[in-house]
Amino acid sequence: MGKLILKILVGQQAGAEVMLEPGEYTLGSDRNDDLQIADLSVAAGHMQLRLQDNKIEISAKAGDIRTENGVSLDSGDVEWIEIEPLDVINIGVVKIALGAKNAQWATLSKALNAAGESENEKPENSTANSLLGENSKHVDAVMAPLTKHRKRIALATVASAVVLGGFYLIAPARFLLAPQVLSRMVALKLYA
Question: pTM surpassing 0.70?
Answer without folding.
Answer: no
